[in-house]
Design a protein that fits this description.
single chain; about 220 residues; mainly alpha; two-stranded antiparallel ribbon; about 75% helix
């Protein structure tokens, strides 16, 4: 394969990922904005989808089934609680901006720059450049979401690192289960667990920060 073909191959799924990601983002943003029943309904549907994916991954291993409750449940409860706060729209929007921007930045910069692998035994596709670029994008997005307040950089950094840890955890789980993706419901992204792995670890931290930090 030539260098040109290899380069094109790296971006082959960009169009599909962009369209499906944009569609999901619109639904999520509408639900976040409306709050109340719309947000609760969104969380119920997403939670049910992630639970179904987890059960499929477990393949009848009863002991692992209950681990999914600890993996998925706290994040959903934290997201519901966050949105119900007086400044809940701001906090959930801040969380979404940080995690999504970090994901997008890591994907684009990692593929553009390449370089050393971040954790080759866990996720061979992730690079140090992608992690660094994703972190920078997440922090900038967090500051922007907080109306330009520089003090938001530290919470954004913490959430970005938590989200990246969740991404690596999901990769480790998939290796444990022997699968490439948790599902196939989202074209170009895989399953809901694949797409929301960072949220699962960042949402509980966001709930803690909401008790101690003002954006």
């Amino acid at each position: 394969m030539s260098g040109r073909d290899a380069g094109a191959g790296r971006w082959r799924d960009l169009g599909v990922r962009t369209v499906s990601g944009a569609a999901l983002a619109l639904v999520a943003l509408a639900s976040i904005w409306l709050g109340g029943t719309a947000w609760l309904s969104c969380l119920v549907v997403v939670g049910a989808g992630m639970a179904a994916e987890w059960l499929a991954l477990c393949r009848g291993r009863t002991g692992l089934r209950w681990a999914g409750v600890a993996y998925i449940g706290p994040a959903l409860l934290c997201l519901l609680w966050l949105r119900g706060l007086p400044d809940g729209l701001r906090w959930v929007g801040f969380l979404a901006a940080v995690v999504w921007s970090g994901d997008i930045g890591a994907y684009l910069i990692g593929r553009l720059v390449g370089g050393p692998r971040l954790a080759p035994r866990i996720s061979p596709g992730k690079t140090v450049s992608g992690a660094a670029g994703g972190t920078l994008c997440a922090v900038l997005a967090g500051v922007a979401a907080a109306s330009g307040h520089a003090a938001a950089a530290l919470p954004a950094l913490a959430l970005s690192l938590a989200a990246q840890a969740g991404d690596l955890l999901e990769s480790a789980l998939k290796r444990r289960f022997g699968v490439k993706d948790s599902g196939s419901i989202i074209p170009g992204h895989g399953g809901l667990l694949d797409r929301l792995d960072g949220v699962l670890t960042a949402a509980p931290l966001a709930a803690v920060l909401a008790l101690t930090v003002r954006l």
